[in-house]
Design brief:
alpha/beta, Rossmann fold, Dehydroquinate synthase-like, alpha domain, 2 domains, three-stranded mixed sheet
Length: about 400
């Protein structure tokens, strides 16, 4: 028998159990009880407490007679010392499980807290792929943005404050036990966060689709996610209280998360992680500003894949030359970013030309770079950063 090749190769996929729909977050108590929780660490941010989204979750924990401690010391780019403080709180409060309520930052911080509390080492020691010996405690995720996909992924991104770089921790041991995906918290998202996190989801899907680790399963999720975000993200930004648009973007984010968790990412995320660690800029915004430039670099390696992405964006590519197709697809992504009001450049955000060599060096060492469809040199990465200035 011939050895299998191409699409017939054995592939492994990871995904948590998830519930999607209005008021899914209010199932947190029931699921915590099912997981045997007695004292939960609720990891969240101060804004979510103010807006009342955390109270609904703690109320349902109380209904199940489950104790909880709230840890809300999480920055927009979660820092290593915040993870360590959270792990200390977890241990001192004698917690046995974690509920994360928030966007990618609280969820990634919660994953880090779980890793440290189970393994007893500093969070930075787990950088890379499959470096977590002991599984984390039970983790329930309640995402409050439509973009990061952290609630269903095997990724955690933590800011190494000394090196000023974001590290990636990738392991199936940090895939959440359950994601409760509720569109209601999205109704209080600012237009800016709606745009940034939505562009993060689109970047996840684009990068997963062209990744050299893509597969038929991740392809289906990635393309449908692009279609959903293209159709509903601008409308969700204009009509923040519209639950239909919020639900569809939440679904788009979920599909993008499943895609990239199993196909990984590429140069956009490697470069955005470097930027976020160095300049503490919003992750979704970094992705949005880099995406078109990385697409232009990658296009020669997989033009048919980018054509599929163009079709998912509703772009008519019939009868065009390859050069014209490339231009039209990249223009389509740029137009969507502009429609969402993400019109800055990296220069506008304070990035300087003299920063670029250091940014490029860090980006080249990011695990996401390994699955980019075209392997860049450091000079290539420097040039892409310059184009985005």
């Amino acid at each position: 028998m011939m050895a299998p090749s191409g699409s017939f190769e054995l592939r492994k996929f990871v995904a948590p159990e998830f519930v999607i729909g209005t008021d899914a977050r209010l199932l947190a108590g029931r699921y915590a009880k099912n997981l045997g929780a007695r004292h939960v660490l609720v990891v969240t941010g101060p804004n979510l407490i103010r807006e009342g989204w955390v109270k609904g979750v703690t109320d349902c924990l109380e209904e199940e007679e489950i104790d909880y401690t709230i840890f809300s010391g999480v920055s927009p780019n979660p820092r290593d010392e915040e993870v360590m403080k959270g792990a200390q709180t977890f241990t001192e409060s004698r917690c046995d499980s974690i509920v994360a309520v928030g966007g990618g930052s609280p969820i990634d911080c919660a994953k880090g807290i779980g890793i440290v509390s189970s393994n007893g080492k500093h969070i930075l020691e787990f950088e890379g792929v499959d470096n977590i010996p002991v599984p984390a405690p039970p983790l329930i995720c309640i995402p409050t943005t439509a973009g990061t996909g952290a609630d269903v992924s095997q990724f955690a991104i933590i800011n190494d404050t000394k090196r000023r770089v974001k590290i990636a921790i990738i392991s199936k041991k940090i895939v959440p036990d359950i994601a409760l995906i509720d569109p209601l918290p999205l109704t209080t998202l600012t237009p800016e966060l709606t745009a940034h996190t939505g562009m993060d989801a689109i970047t996840h899907s684009v990068e997963a689709y062209v990744s050299n680790a893509s597969s038929p399963v991740t392809d289906i999720n990635a393309l449908e996610s692009i279609r959903l975000m293209h159709a509903h993200l601008p409308l969700a930004k204009k009509n923040p209280k519209n639950l239909e648009h919020r639900y569809q973007t939440m679904l788009g984010s979920l599909l993008a998360g499943l895609a990239f968790s199993n196909a990984s990412l590429g140069a956009v995320h490697a470069m955005a992680h470097s930027l976020g660690g160095f300049s503490d800029l919003p992750h979704g915004e970094c992705n949005a500003l880099l995406l078109q430039h990385v697409m232009a670099f990658n296009f020669p390696s997989c033009p048919k894949r980018y054509e599929d992405i163009g079709n998912a964006l509703g772009i008519d590519l019939s009868g065009l030359s390859l050069t014209d197709k490339k231009e039209k697809i990249i223009s389509g992504i740029t137009a969507m970013r502009n429609t969402l009001g993400v019109t800055e450049t990296l220069g506008d955000l304070g990035v300087k030309k003299q920063d670029i060599p250091s940014l490029a060096q860090n980006a080249m060492h990011d695990p996401c770079m390994a699955t980019n469809p075209r392997q860049p040199t450091r000079k290539d990465i420097e040039r892409i950063y310059e184009e985005a200035l």
